[in-house]
Amino acid sequence: MNKAKFAGTGLAAAEQIYKERSLRARELSKEGKKVMGYFCAYPPLEMLTAVDVVPYRIMGNPRMAPVRVEAYLESITCSFVRSCFELALNNDYDFLDGFIACHACDNLIKVYNVWRHNFKPPFSYFVNVPNTTSPASLKFFRAELSMFQRRLESFTGRQISEQQLIAAIKLHNENRSLMREVYALRKPDPPLISSVEMNKILVASQSIPVEESNQLLHKVIRDIKARTESPTRKTIRLMIVGPEIDDSPLFELIEDTGASVVVDDTCIGTKVYWRDVEMKGDPLNNLAERYLNKVKCPRTVRQSTQNSAEDLDARFGHILDLAREFNVNGVILYILRYCDNFGYDVPELKSYLEKAGLPVFHIEDDYLVNSARLKTRVEAFIEMIS
Amino acid sequence: MAEESKSKTGAVKSTDIVKRVPRLIKTMLSETHEAKAQGRPLVYCFIFSLCDEIVRAMGMTPVWPENWAAFCAALHLTEGYLNKANAAGFSDKLCTYSTCGLGFDIMRSELGEAPPDSPFGGLPKPDVMIGAGLLLCDARHKWFQSAQQYTNVPLYNMGVMTPPYDVDPNEVEGYYIEYMVEELRGLVEFLEKVTGRKMNWDDLSHLLDVSDETNDIWYKAYQLRKAVPAPMPTEDALSAFAPNACLMGTNIALDFCRDLYKEVKYRVDNKIGVIPDEKFRLLWGIGIPPWYALMLFNLFEQRGAVFPIEAMYRPWEPVEIPKGATHPLERLAWRFYRRATYRHDKARKRSGDADVELLIDYIDDYKIDGVVLHRAYSCRTLHVGQLHQLAVLKQYRNLPTLILESDMVDMRSFSEDDVNSKIETFIEVLDAHKTKTTGKG
């Protein structure tokens, strides 16, 4: 297998990478490149790119029922994390040179040890992200990233110069900018790109080196702009909000009902792509600032201002902004069972969006998509807002 | 036996000292109401999150909703609160300490006062809340943020961090300590601003001295529990934990621990055991018990098995604070950091997991024959990773293990028949294991 397989039109290449997600990473690994798997939207990928390591997003498979994982992770563990572990047990991640987790939630903290113990990756690091955004938290996080840098340098035997880090930040900012451009193609009504296609592009982009992802996105944008008609009919426009929704069955199910997801606030979607790293000044500080302060995730508790409306805007305003920017008719709040950080926000987020005039459909479900049951409920929601 | 125990769900206690605990809890909660009536600020807090002595040194009264939920569970009075929180949109999979507390906060907010039938008169509305998740526990960050919509009082969320087990604590302590000191300083400034009260640093130093002494005596008392026969069982330790957790820094907790030490020593000196014929010594592993069904410990005892020690609700090991750390906030930060990383070094050199190292230490020190864990379905913090702990433990100490499953607060998850049958089978396994390894059944 070689890189040429992914040549051709952008959308076809994205589809191909999506279908054989680890193919390129395995190929690079065989060529001697270091590839590291990571969980969540918090590890600063720029640092991996700067040290010539390929970041590879660890994802699950909602089509595959967990079997072997039962002996390793309790049933009360987040079902996404369990799915990832199941794939690892099936050797889906056996090519990785490193494993990077972060302080995103209790589930990831716990799985870090279990993963290290069972798969013994040559390199592992737990990025300790503070839960608050105080100046002290920012200072701590910068020091933590500095430690992460030293560990990466020690493992790879390469030093990361400031210029290399700045160059990597530039590449990843470009990547984020290009992905936002793809998202923008969903603004027309009907959108120029379906949610199933979008999901595949997101998955593909987080499975290959950033330079290749940038090339892919350029081609994807060109392909979509060249379209003469939308792949979906003009219909109900939805936003999906939730944690790790990283595969297509859910989007297929929603599109089958005749609706279209046009934007998201999920851990593989806008949380990854919506805020750039500042280019001026100390690059480590800028990375700390971007990942700690600019990524809006319920796991980070922003200090209360004592003004309820302001607090809610600080926590959920970005979701409402996206909903308005993409002109959505309703929001699906898709919460994975045992995802506590998102779970606590449900009552306030639902109320916040409904007060802003947006109908909200809240589902708490397993990562393993139960199509029949879910489809009926989604259809009922669509019918209600139609 | 099952029928008999169904009528009684609390554990029969062995020591006299813990019989004082219900009264201490009642007094503590009634003082909370008195403080409210006198206009002294009340602060929602979490135990072991570094704020106890700070709050007290500023003349405020800490309130412990997490522990209040456990007290309610022991009285079987949580269902209404859980249902209320679930109806408000909080999932029944979230920490049931929190949903019990949130359900109560919603009711108090709707009624303008605690519901009339609340256990211990309920909790008065706080004036301030302090969230702190330590390295783990999402609920300790998110709970009070959610509660704010019902309390409408200021909230300070504090960062308290410890490194993961594969990191040498000495290598990173500089920025971890600096961070915690800054966060604690931020907490003091915040409390001064929102309550108008000033920190008395001398008082804080004194309270730290008292809590250090309390912890030391508590620790020494539990060292005595290594004796055979076991002088004090886990069900007593679960009660003894309440004053030590909720009244740390006060003379009440200090006196309690002094008397605890005396009684345990007396029992050891006079070879007074929990049960007459101690056949098996068990370790209660890392996991929160079902507070509404602590009689399960007696079910073990009826079969000759006793729990001389527990990996939860225990005193901290004595740690050394650097001589230069003289400011009380530095003392607090160092004390927490050294305690929380006490077994990191061992973990890096052997099992890779400090929790496993704790289990190994206790198994050896307390002459343990088997390990029992309880998995509370609503808590990922302490219960995800139990399978891993046991798998790793098996590599170093091959003992029979048992996992019981239900919840710490939600009684609906508990089946006494199931627990009984699991205990029955486990005792048989213990018996067979002991026969095989020692030749003595």
Number of strands of chain B: 8
Largest interface: A-B, 56 and 61 residues
Indicate the proportion of strand residues of chain A: 5-15%
Average pLDDT score of chain B:
94
What is the tally of helical segments of chain B? 18
- Which percent range fits the helix content of chain A? 40-55%
SSE topology string of chain B: HHEHEHHHEHEHHHHEHEHHHEHHEH
Q: How do the strands of the widest beta sheet of chain B line up side by side?
A: 2-1-3-4
CATH class of the domain at 31-166 in chain A: Alpha Beta
> How does the major sheet of chain B shape up?
4 strands, parallel
Provide mean pLDDT of chain A, rounded. Answer: 93
The first-to-last residue Cα distance of chain B is 23 Å
In helices, the fraction of residues of chain B equals 40-55%
How would a textbook summarize the main sheet of chain A? 4 strands, parallel
CATH architecture of the domain at 31-166 in chain A: 3-Layer(aba) Sandwich
Shape of chain B: globular
Q: List low-pLDDT spans of chain A.
A: none
- Approximately what portion of the residues of chain B adopt beta-strand conformation? 5-15%
Radius of gyration of chain A: 20 Å
The overall number of domains of chain B is 1
How would you sum up this structure, described in words?
The complex is a heterodimer of chains A (386) and B (441). Chain A is of the alpha/beta class. Chain A has a domain at 31-166: Rossmann fold, CATH 3.40.50.11890. Chain A is built from 15 helices and 8 strands. The longest helix of chain A has 23 residues, at 162-184. Chain B is globular. Chain B has 441 residues and is α/β, with parallel strands linked by helices. Chain B is 53% helix and 9% strand. Chain B has a 4-stranded parallel beta sheet with strand order 2-1-3-4, sandwiched between helices. In chain B, strands 6-5-7-8 form a 4-stranded parallel beta sheet, sandwiched between helices. Chain B has one domain (2-438). Classes of the chains: A alpha/beta (386), B alpha/beta (441). At the A-B interface, helix 5, helix 6 and helix 14 of A face helix 7, strand 4, helix 8, helix 16 and helix 17 of B.
